[in-house]
Amino acid sequence: MPEKKILPSYSGQSVDDLLAMEAGYRIDSLVFAFESALDEKAAQIGYEKLSEPEKAVLVIQALQRDVRENGYRQFFMNTPVYAAEVVGMLKSTGCPKAAEVSEGAIGALGIKGRITGEAIYDILQELSEGTLETLKEFDRKFTECEEDVTGILFEYIKKNKNKIKFIKSNNIADE
Questions:
Q1: pTM for this structure?
Q2: Exposed / middle / buried, residue 35 (Cβ in 10 Å: 0-12, 13-18, 19+)
Q3: List of residues 6+ apart from 162 with CB closer than 8 A
Q4: How far apart are CA 139 and CA 19, in angstroms?
Q5: Residues 135, 59, 98, CA angle at the centre, nearest 5°?
């Protein structure tokens, strides 16, 4: 069986176009294309106006990229607002193991009260060496997690494709 191709970038495809590429392209590159299209949409209309499935793609992709490259600390620094939502989104997409690891990493921060982007940002300014070491342990656990988070996220996208819309030239595509 020939190896699947990597979609080099998002270039204006619709939701259905990207889903139809599943047979010929690697799933990770397709999920990245969804993330790119939704990043563009969030930049235009605001993250808060995205649907829950659209937010889930952005949050989970940010988590995967940051934790795999530089760890939870990087994820918390880059997107503290996403950190407040990530556990629930992992659970809702079908990734309970990744949710459990992420919940542990957030718990290691020792936030008192409600978890918010601001609370996470404030804690990050004064992390102890012990907390940094604990976060590194959660980085390892996430990397070794046996869930195919990307594959599960792609299946979630397929199930929720009617709640995912891209913006093209100031018009919403796929309507």
A1: 0.91
A2: buried
A3: none
A4: 30
A5: 50
Q: What is the mean pLDDT of each run of 10 residues along the chain (175 residues)?
A: 90 96 97 97 97 98 96 94 94 98 95 85 89 96 96 98 85 44
Contact 14, 173 (CB under 8 A): yes
Specify the pLDDT at position 70: 95
- Other CB atoms within a 10 A radius of the CB of residue 65 amount to 16
Asked whether 83 and 75 are in contact (CB, 8 A), the reply is yes
**142 neighbors 72 (Cβ within 8 angstroms):** yes
Distances 142 to 101, 111, 155 between C-alpha atoms, Å: 6, 21, 20
Half-sphere exposure of 160 (CA within 13 A, CB side): 19
* CB neighbour list of residue 69: distance below 8 Å, 6 or more residues apart: none
Which domains does the chain carry? Answer: 15-167 (1.20.1420.60)
What does the pLDDT read at residue 142?
Answer: 97
* pLDDT at residue 1, rounded to an integer: 65
